[in-house]
Design brief:
Blueprint: E1 4-5, H1 16-28, H2 38-57, E2 65-68, H3 71-80, E3 88-92, H4 97-108, E4 112-116, H5 126-135, E5 139-141, H6 155-161, E6 167-171, H7 183-186, E7 190-194, E8 205-209, H8 235-249, H9 252-273, E9 277-279, E10 290-295, H10 300-309, E11 312-313, E12 315-316, E13 319-321, E14 324-326, H11 329-333, H12 338-341, E15 344-348, H13 355-379
Parallel strand pairs: 1-11, 3-4, 3-5, 5-6, 6-7
Antiparallel strand pairs: 2-8, 7-8, 9-10, 10-15, 12-15, 13-14
The protein binds pyridoxal-5'-phosphate.
């Protein structure tokens, strides 16, 4: 059975060009990029090219890219220089859980953390911006788009509203590769990217660090990444990352509208076939590939299992801890009732999604939701 994959925000399948890049490298290369012999220097050149490809996609200089093991590490790395007593850090209540982790670690280090609240429609109330300015942060970390709802945040406006000495980080894991992202237009000092969300290998990512911004490595002892991340580079991961960025850069102006056309087709199809569906953050600017839907009277886990049996993949925002299903912290923080939050589902499209996939997904979901609701009515 060909599976219908609508979970690109979790991870995106390897792009064919990336698969080829990896196969070509594995077929004929070895060598440590730090070695000074020819074999090592050949690999170094490939790593340098990949760094240029990643930097180009976000309008950065290659020297400002630090390769990491992924988005989580890059996010923590951006925070690390500010996790100190007396520092004032601000973030939102709906960031990825790793930023929540970083904020808790910062508090343990006696930094002061201010959390920006988000309204039920996904927006930020102007009074929250006033509170942020009054807090007078040294460092703000705000995601560019939320990984569950797809709601986008005006990082540029926030950065402009703050004093020039405040450093700004954005977790752009869910926007890079889907829309044009430029570090200078956004006015950020740090930006996080994850390779596997772009159709490259998992376990790979990067932190953009604007020249001159505070930076503290987690570990030292090697000169790799200009001393910012010691350890022999994950060469295969880096080459896969660079290739994905190169492929995406050639068509980035078109990708956003292609994704939103598919997303709109999906949402229109479901809205036509089903009553009682609520599309989260639909009145806000949203990243074009993401559709976050609450189906009235439906338990998201039951729908996920039923759809899985029919070959359709998507995510619920909920997490399973010790056998109990917890509703998503994002949906709860936006003010939804916990029972309603349990019905939230994220569909996310990507480079491999076709109109046919969308139509089939709409047909499967419409049938399953109708039948689950019908069974519930009969047993009520
Ligand atoms: C917004 C956001 N930040 C960070 C991450 C973590 O990235 P990685 O899986 O590369 O560590 C994710 C992954 O889901 C994400 O969606």
């Amino acid at each position: 059975m060909k599976r219908l994959y609508l979970d690109h925000n979790a991870t995106s399948p390897l792009r064919p060009e990336v698969r080829q890049e990896i196969a070509d490298f594995l077929a004929g290369n070895c060598g440590n990029p730090s070695s000074i012999h020819t074999t090592g220097r050949n690999v170094r050149r490939k790593v340098d090219t990949a760094r240029e490809q990643v930097a180009k996609l976000i309008g950065a200089k290659p020297s400002e890219i630090v390769f990491t093991s992924g988005g989580v590490e890059a996010n923590h790395l951006a925070w690390h220089a500010f996790e100190k007593a007396g520092k004032k850090i601000a973030t939102t209540v709906i960031e990825h859980s790793c930023i929540r982790g970083a904020s808790e670690m910062s508090e343990q280090c006696q930094a002061q953390v201010h959390r920006i609240c988000i309204k039920k429609d996904g927006s930020i109330c102007p009074s929250e911006i006033e509170k942020l300015i009054a807090f007078d942060p040294d460092f703000v970390s705000m995601h560019h788009a939320n990984n569950e709802t797809g709601a986008m945040y005006d990082v540029k406006a926030i950065s402009q509203a703050l004093k020039p000495e405040c450093y700004v980080h954005t977790d752009a894991v869910q926007t890079v590769g889907k829309i044009p992202v430029n570090v200078n237009d956004l006015g950020v000092d740090y930006l996080t990217i994850s390779a596997h969300k772009l159709g490259a290998l998992q376990g790979m990512g990067a932190l953009y660090v604007r020249k001159g911004s505070p930076f503290e490595p987690f570990w030292t002892g090697g000169s790799q990444e200009r001393g910012r991340r010691s350890g022999t580079e994950n060469v295969i991961g880096i080459l896969s990352f660079g290739k994905a960025c190169e492929v995406i850069a050639a068509k980035i102006e078109r990708i956003g509208s292609q994704y939103s056309a598919l997303r709109d087709r999906f949402e229109k199809g479901l809205s036509k076939n089903l009553d009682g569906i609520y599309i989260t953050a639909s009145t806000q600017p949203r990243i074009g590939n993401t559709s976050h839907i609450i189906f009235e009277g439906i338990d998201a886990e039951s729908l996920l299992i039923a759809a899985d049996l029919e070959g359709l993949d998507f995510s619920t925002g909920s997490a399973c801890h010790s056998g109990a299903i917890d509703p998503s912290h994002v949906v709860l923080a936006m003010g939804f009732d916990p029972e309603i939050a349990k019905g939230a589902i994220r569909f996310s499209l990507g480079w491999s999604t076709t109109e046919e996939d969308i139509d089939q997904a709409v047909a499967i979901l419409s049938r399953l939701v109708t039948s689950i609701r019908e069974k519930k009515r009969q047993t009520a």
